[in-house]
Amino acid sequence: MDTIDREIQAPNSGRKHCGWVTFPFITGAVLGLGLAGTGWMANLIIYLIQQFNVNAIDAAQVSNIVNGGSSLFPIVGAIIADSFLGCFSVITLFSSISLLGTVFIALTATLNSLRPTPCNGRLGSFCKDPSWVQFLVLYAGIALGSMGLGGTRFTLATMGANQFDNPQHQGIFFNWCFFSQYAASAVGATALVYIEDNLSWGLGFGLSVAANLLALLIFLLGNRFYLHDKPQGSPFLDIVRVMVAAFRKRNFSLSPMADDYYNPITVEGAPPNKAFRFLNRASLKAEGDIKTDGSGTIAKPWRLCSVQQVEDLKTLVRILPLWSSSIFLSTPVAIHSSLTVLQALNMDRHLGQHLKIPAGSILVIEIVACAIFLTLIDRFLWLTWQNLTRKSPSPLQRIGVGHVLNVLAMAVSALVESKRLKMVHHHDRDQSQPRSSMLALWLVPQLSLVGIGEAFHCPGQVSLYYQEFPASLRSTATAMIALIIGIAFYLGTAIIDFVRRVTSWLPDNINNGRLDNVYWMLTVVGVLNFGYYLACSRSYKYQNVEKQVDADTNYTYG
């Protein structure tokens, strides 16, 4: 199998390069890019409606596509990083693409010729549609911005983790990486959105451009300190080769002898393990599979693979059930986000007499809760756990805590919504009462539980995939959570459509529905998925985590 050569691209070698010296540069890039992306994505629907005369449904569809695409595109960036360019080049390229897209969006807000005349409250028939040039510039900016944001999001996490050999330090880095992402999102969804709504769209988007540019410059300034990975070939091609070779040799009998299986000359011979034995045929040597020139290299790569290539594919197969359980962990969260906004729209959002919280900003509570607990987990909870048990929690334990908190969040959401509906129905019987006097602050507990749950399971998942995936798939490993979020986003949309078709729980006016039943349904789904997760985690055996820990540190995973 092709390997990844780790080499220091710095003027002087030594431990002053890589490690924590790179942390400010990579974290600075995470903060800047996160702020830039949230600055235009968080308010995209309002911008399309107010400045481009797009109707609300179409604006929501555009926003959905952007959110789904920015969650799925990290996989593309990770594949390119693992297979062709490496993390540094991919981050530089996609940060530049994001910058170009954000510039296009900012231009539509600053140049009158790049947007139509606003409707200004007039009837739809008097609204002027954008020209094809205006739409071209706008959607080019949105596409480039979304592509660039997605391409850097988890590749940055991979490159940061690559700077450390100690799994404990990698886990700490992942915590701070997620903290930085959530902190940037919180600032973008509040400060920049406020500037765009109340001061100037051009100024708000211009600040996003500045944040993106600053992030790119900070990242490039740290180049002399980075430990670079130099990819050689596509690891995904190796995976396909193993499957093809195993199928072509499906009639061969397996051998108990290690010498009958192919290992490169530079690798000590060892037979493949007995798990998924049908794949072992891919490394079973046959006549004509190896060159006769004495080099010991493979003559027919689609008929023979190395034992290591076979074991890498087995690693992916082993972790697939755990990964699938995370999809149904994230799907309720995706559904909950949109439904909570609908709840907030029908609640009293005033803070005092003059300040009213925008319904869309209510989700910032989730971001803030996650960011706070990422810090508490890193500084206090894990240290307490280590003092009590003499070992640190494993990635699977972190994810398990996230499952439990997610179930609790859905149950609390159901209880709060049930109380809200009772108050609404009470008004229907007593018209002297206000429509709904329930404060939107009642949504804080459920949003906080979701955010705290993410503080546990998101870094846990990234740490698990990064440490367990084959070395050649490290960038893809950290992007797996982005793939989960993207699938959960679209799956959640399909579930809501299904519920609306077969029940009356989600009418256009949720005051006439049973949103609490939807939350109870998600609670049941969460409990069942947690049971599935427990079954998968109990049968899973770490491939790399414990080996790395035992070899490098006294930090052990349970």
UniProtKB/TrEMBL annotation:
Topology relative to the membrane: Multi-pass membrane protein
GO BP annotation list: oligopeptide transport; transmembrane transport
CDD domains recorded: MFS_NPF1_2
Keyword Nucleus appears in the UniProt entry: no
GO molecular function, one term: transmembrane transporter activity
Subcellular localization, as worded in the UniProt entry: Membrane
Domain of life: Eukaryota
GO cellular component annotations of the record: plasma membrane
Keywords associated with the record: Membrane, Transmembrane, Transmembrane helix
Segments crossing the lipid bilayer: 21-49, 61-81, 88-111, 131-151, 172-195, 201-222, 357-377, 397-416, 476-496, 517-535
InterPro entries per UniProt: MFS_trans_sf, POT_fam, PTR2_symporter_CS
Any one Pfam family match given in the protein's UniProt record, by short name: PTR2
Family: Belongs to the major facilitator superfamily. Proton-dependent oligopeptide transporter (POT/PTR) (TC 2.A.17) family.
Name of the protein described by the UniProt record: Protein NRT1/ PTR FAMILY 2.7
Originating gene: LOC107953123
